[in-house]
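Quick illustration, no need to memorize.
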Amino acid sequence: MAALAERRIIPHEELKARAEEKSEARAQERNQERNQERSQERAQELVQELAQEIAQERTPEHAAEQAQAEDEAVESAEQQPAVRPEYLRLLEALLFAASAPLDEKTLGSRLPEDVDVRQALRALQMEYAPRGVNLVKINNKWTFRTAADLSWLLTKEAIVPKKLSRAAVETLAVIAYHQPVTRAEVEEIRGVVMSKGTFDVLMETGWIKPRGRRKVPGRPITYGTTEDFLSHFGLEVLGDLPGLEELKGSGLLDHRLPPGFAVPMPSDDPQLRDDEDPLEPGDLDLGLAPPPERVEE
């Protein structure tokens, strides 16, 4: 049989002493918590007082700095360029990507309907005017070209194996000023009979092309200049060719000209005239006629 554990009887005085010790410990803990809270509050008050003193001491300087910052922000906003219209970016991309000059109708078909194509082209032309690449108009078509004053950068000196003969230059001038013109009419104006090679050289350069056939016996072919001719000589339209007074001033014409002498007003209108018939497919052995789908009716 297990022995019963002896139960110790705690005297009343000892219980009372223990209770007092616990009470004092709790009181000390509460005092420590109150002291800690007061310390934190005091620290916050000191921080606030210090911040106020610093703010009061630096108020004039801070205000000046803030005013200067605001002025700089306003100036920066004024200097910021205006937002560039989106249609100019579209127009710019079309012209850069094109392998050949584009007319206004073609460009307008790729732009929003509310865009004034001609005005947009002029705006883009002005924007590119001071740059190294300019937007130029050639034969009513638009393209980007290197600025004329920078052409020396891209100039490559080379020996030209063959130059145009005097006969070819004169023939080209007659065609440019008198087009549409036939071979016989060129010979009549020059006063000499030409060899076939003269026309062949000009055709190879791409500066002249057959236009149609004259409505006269024999139906001779009529010739005119091309876009390559305008591009090579830096002309926007054929009407920019020099007139009589300009030719005299440059010394290309004698001042003692016969009475009634005049320089015709050149025109490169692609439309056939009343005295011209369109070329027919296959009527030229050299294949100079346009394909069937392009023959004018």
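The chain has a mean pLDDT of 79.
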